[in-house]
Amino acid sequence: xxxxxxxxxxxxxxxxxxxxxxxxxxxxxxxxxxxxxxxxxxxxxxxxxxxxxxxxxxxxxxxxxxxxxxxxxxxxxxxxxxxxxxxxxxxxxxxxxxxxxxxxxxxxxxxxxxxxxxxxxxxxxxxxxxxxxxxxxxxxxxxxxxxxxxxxxxxxxxxxxxxxxxxxxxxxxxxxxxxxxxxxxxxxxxxxxxxxxxxxxxxxxxxxxxxxxxxxxxxxxxxxxxxxxxxxxxxxxxxxxxxxxxxxxxxxxxxxxxxxxxxxxxxxxxxxxxxxxxxxxxxxxxxxxxxxxxxxxxxxxxxxxxxxxxxxxxxxxxxxxxxxxxxxxxxxxxxxxxxxxxxxxxxxxxxxxxxxxxxxxxxxxxxxxxxxxxxxxxxxxxxxxxxxxxxxxxxxxxxxxxxxxxxxxxxxxxxxxxxxxxxxxxxxxxxxxxxxxxxxxxxxxxxxxxxxxxxxxxxxxxxxxxxxxxxxxxxxxxxxxxxxxxxxxxxxxxxxxxxxxxxxxxxxxxxxxxxxxxxxxxxxxxxxxxxxxxxxxxxxxxxxxxxxxxxxxxxxxxxxxxxxxxxxxxxxxxxxxxxxxxxxxxxxxxxxxxxxxxxxxxxxxxxxxxxxxxxxxxxxxxxxxxxxxx
Length: 630
Description:
The protein is an alpha+beta fold. The protein has a domain at 369-629: 3-Layer(aba) Sandwich (Rossmann fold). Helices cover 16% and strands 34% of the residues. The strands form eight sheets. The protein has an eight-stranded mixed β-sheet, with helices on both faces. Strands 1-2-3-4 form a four-stranded antiparallel β-sheet, with no helix packed on it. GO terms for molecular function: aminopeptidase activity; serine-type endopeptidase activity. Pfam families: PD40, Peptidase_S9.
């Protein structure tokens, strides 16, 4: 039997971005390497005839980064972005009749596109092309950036593919255009804009518009809730409606809902209010849209109709990047199993879904740890869930085992009952080394409704921490976990929880803090999602002279208590959780003489891309817990 190696994990090929044709007969998807070995990520575009043999074939061959496939309304042409002409500068391409045609040469590159029904145009999203003055300033390094004035933003443009002419309508007053969706059958576009492309300010400034591509006229429909995305049209007895997913006010940090605007009356409503699930995607059809919902450890697909949500199916594990035909009768998505990485699957929304791709055959036959769902109650009676992955080849009766708890990020994320094998700290990678792994879903995450998700606002490290401890104690009581061999790990918010755990308890013999938060005040000040982080930490530095609530939930405030050895991993170019967070934790641990390793990865952001760095994380993670827990 093949042994699982770090190389097998990082060198795998990953399917992405499935898109089904409007008529439901064909499917395209992208295949990407799991890591970067050179300067660029080379990806491939594949097609599948769903009414034929269902076997995918590759349709691009040049080294390039291919992205954003999208079908024409008549299902005859596939549009996509590719930087094969100039690496790093994507242009729009079209595939029709087996021939690929380059449609744009926009010097700033194209960041988005939508082929339109009716006028024969293609809507583009792109920044302004550099002027001669811009190029002169760049040559002379006279390139000071004035906040709010010099910031680049995507504008709506219209391409006539017959002539190659691109026009830029004078609409939306310099706002950053985020998303477009045309009304079924042709007609106006719903356009989502923000005041800025800035990740901190922009998501709080969303507005919805209508744009007529024939007349060039625009109508402002007013503001939308924070972090809006996933536009969809549908009709009801009172006429056309527009929907989107956004954060539920007034909490800025979590809790998504489907919002609905009746265009005739102007009435807005929350269509998922009070539901015990969390919408993740809204997909337009020719009739009622589909809603994809995080539902505990699994995923539900529902139809949004006049009554509310009509459940069509509950699919096991995750269902990501869902795409649907115009008639709503066929979907495609990325999904897998407990011991099988995600692949493209297709079928009716109610299932069953047929597997289309097999991009990770090298994993087949490898002995992985048995994965099982956990359901338990917090100390206050709140229902919780999570996953337990046993050491490969072992049963629970053979315990107790060394236990590593890996906390998910977000915190508005979740563990679903899907394959847990990645380059970052992952359950199966540690299970194949003999560790049991606990994957908790404490309050603050997806899958259990709005109140559950927003419970940690201003209270990070409080109830979510005791939720995690309750699960660990149950595994100890069941004889699965050895109380003298406990470890904790996580990335991003999970890294924060690992740092918080060892600042609050001496029960753990080893911790891994990956891209984690040490100080919430610093994160609100210089993280790319500042006020989102302030909502979690409870305050910002400009909230008077203090003491500030964020200090009370920051691990660095309790560094003098830490006795557990800590492995700190962080990307030097991380803008989500900036590198200074790792430096601060490292300096605090060094000051108090705590055993730790501090590893910096040059050129990496919040998620690592380079092959050697991914390999190092995997090997270092396993070695750290092997040494300290065995």
